[in-house]
Write a structure and sequence with these properties.
The chain has about 140 residues and is mainly alpha-helical. It contains 5 helices and no strands. Helix 1 (about 1-25) runs antiparallel to helix 2 and helix 4 (about 65-85) runs antiparallel to helix 5 (about 85-130). The chain is flat. The termini are far apart.
Length: about 140
């Protein structure tokens, strides 16, 4: 029950943060708009990072197909953002999407390393057990 309640609170905070980020421009002006936007970004990032650490989401985000999608899609968007957007917006979008792409790429490299290590261990164990003879009873 505690886990369900914490999940509901985290998802609610995440959605409130996204709403504040997106909708503050339609309701507020000036400094209030900036404060609501940056506060919403901080709230959604904080809640989203906590959500991503929970088991079902964590295992989904670390699967190889999702990592490949994140790596390729964000890499293409980062390259396109540099050409499609001007000035600081283009640089910021390209940098943000590039960081996500790099993070997914490092995740792919880490999962590849752990997969190879497990295969080598099993192969080595199989070779070691093949050379052993079981003692025969006298």
């Amino acid at each position: 029950m505690k886990s369900l309640l914490s999940s509901i609170v985290l998802w609610s905070l995440f959605l409130v943060g996204l709403s504040a980020t997106v909708a503050s421009g339609a309701v507020l002006d000036g400094t209030q708009k900036d404060v609501a936007t940056y506060g919403g970004i901080a709230l959604s990032l904080l809640a989203g990072s906590r959500i991503a650490k929970k088991d079902p989401i964590k295992s989904f985000l670390s699967s190889r197909p999702v990592l490949w999608f994140l790596f390729l899609f964000n890499g293409v968007v980062a390259a396109a953002a540099g050409f499609a957007l001007d000035g600081v917006q283009g640089i910021t979008a390209a940098a943000g999407m590039g960081l996500v792409s790099l993070g997914a790429g490092f995740g792919l490299l880490q999962s590849r390393g752990t997969r190879n290590r497990g295969t080598r261990t099993r192969g080595t164990q199989a070779l070691e057990t093949q050379g052993r003879r079981t003692p025969t009873p006298a």
